[in-house]
Amino acid sequence: MSDFRKRLEKASAPYLARIHALPRWVLPVFMTIILLIGLLANPNESPGLWIGFFALLFIGLFLVWLLALSWPLLTRSSKVLRVLVAGLIFYTAFSRF
After folding, report:
1. What is the mean pLDDT of residues 85-89?
2. Within a 13 Å sphere around the CA of 26, how many CA atoms are in the beta-carbon half?
3. pLDDT in tens, 31-82
4. In angstroms, rounded to a whole number, what is the distance separating the alpha carbons of residues 42 and 52?
5. CA distance 80 to 2
6. Helix pair 26-40, 76-96: axis angle to 10 deg
7. Under 8 Å CB-to-CB from 18, ≥6 apart: which residues?
8. DSSP string for 27-94
9. Plot region of 38 (φ>0 → left; ψ -120 to 50 → alpha; else → beta)
């Protein structure tokens, strides 16, 4: 295991413990709300531009963080699918806003 991976897992442990302690419905509902805010924000308005961009950026970074933590355990097809989903979120954020 690389030094970076050890540091990532150690730094992520308290956050993962907090997320795991939440009720099961909280994270999917929260992420769905943030995703809808990002997708429905008006890119022609100044506040909507930044709110939508940062909402989608947050979703993308969260997915990449989870992907990095689970990478060694994933099959090749799971890795490809998760990278595509994260890439689609980043593409949407940067192309729309």
Report:
1. 96
2. 6
3. 999 999 999 988 888 887 899 999 999 999 999 999 999 999 999 999 999 9
4. 7
5. 22
6. 40
7. none
8. HHHHHHHHHHHHHHS-TTSHHHHHHHHHHHHHHHHHHHHHHHHHGGGS-HHHHHHHHHHHHHHHHHHH
9. alpha
Q: What does R_g of the chain's alpha carbons equal in angstroms? A: 15
Both structure tokens of 14: 């308290």
Residue listed under structure tokens 């990532």: 8
CA gap 55, 94 in Å, rounded: 12
Backbone angles phi, psi at 25, to 5 degrees: -85, -15
- Residue 64 tokens read as 């990449």
Short-list 67, 66, 62, 59, CA closest to 38? 59
What's the CA gap between 45 and 63, in Å, rounded? 27
